[in-house]
Amino acid sequence: MEPRARIGKNRGQQNFADQELQLLLFAHGDVKDSLDLTKRVFDECLTDFITELCFEAHRSAALAGRQKIKLDDVRFACRKNPTYLGRIEEIIGKKSEIDKARKTLDVTDDKITKSSLKAMEEPLGEADDDEDSKTLGGKSAR
């Protein structure tokens, strides 16, 4: 069966939970308790968007001779919309920062490794030397 025909089979059924949709709507400026009709329409729009994006990414993967979709296929599918592409790039950047931070922690003993400690050190400038000489109430703060 054609994949798009399979999607038509579920038409009218809600694909996302009411709570998820409500939180998304509220996060983007809707009232605290949205109408049921609003949630249903938003669910349908969101489902259609994800479906179309996946089909475009699958088309790109098929042209490359692959059956599985890669992140580059999703990027290619969003190439005409700079807002979507920028958001994808932003999320990828954050993911790489998180991965880098996870690598600095030694998972075996929950301590920071020596090599990662050197990587996290920042060189001290002249402004940092003044920090030690602050006084509180006329007396040195030691």
From TrEMBL:
Coiled coil: none annotated. One of its GO terms (molecular function) is protein heterodimerization activity. One of its GO terms (cellular component) is transcription factor TFIID complex. Pfam families: TFIID-18kDa. The lineage of its organism: Eukaryota, Fungi, Dikarya, Ascomycota, Pezizomycotina. Residues 123-132 have a biased composition (Acidic residues). The keyword Transcription applies. It comes from the Eukaryota. The keyword Protein biosynthesis applies. It comes from Coleophoma cylindrospora. Keywords: Initiation factor, Nucleus, Protein biosynthesis, Transcription, Transcription regulation. Belongs to the TAF13 family. Its main location: nucleus. GO terms for biological process: RNA polymerase II preinitiation complex assembly. It is found in: Nucleus. This is Transcription initiation factor TFIID subunit 13. Residues 114-142 are annotated as: Disordered.
